[in-house]
Amino acid sequence: MTYPLIVVPFLLLAAVVTAVTIRRERFGRRMAASALAALVLLALTAVFDNIMIAAGLFTYPSEHLSGLHIGLAPIEDFSYPLAAAFLIPAVWTLLTPRKPA
Predict the structure, then answer these.
(1) CA atoms within 13 A on the CB side of 54
(2) pTM to 2 decimals?
């Protein structure tokens, strides 16, 4: 189970950085936008990963996977778009200067 262990730091980083932005303005709106982006990215990942795996473009050694799949795609493939959908806006928020009160 190598791939699930590789995924954990990315998801934790995304969660921590997102949590740091809770007090920033429009947090709820950003979370709604991130959730929508995550749904779109997860759907695209499901479609295109399954197509690429079915076409034989790449494979995964089963001993390194959790064993959970969505179609042919291992569940671990879905963690990166999920993390990106929340991490990128959170980092952007932290890099944007706050407006003076």
Answers:
(1) 9
(2) 0.86
pLDDT tens digit sequence for 30-61:
999 999 999 999 999 999 999 999 999 998 88
CA-nearest of 6, 1, 8, 10 to 61 is: 1
What CA dihedral angle connects 57, 60, 62 and 67, to 10 degrees? -100
Q: What are the helix (H) ranges across the chain? A: 2-20, 27-54, 79-95
Nearest to 86 by CA among 52, 44, 41: 41
Backbone angles phi, psi at 70, to 5 degrees: -115, 105
Pick from 89, 76, 94: which is nearest to 10 by CA? 76
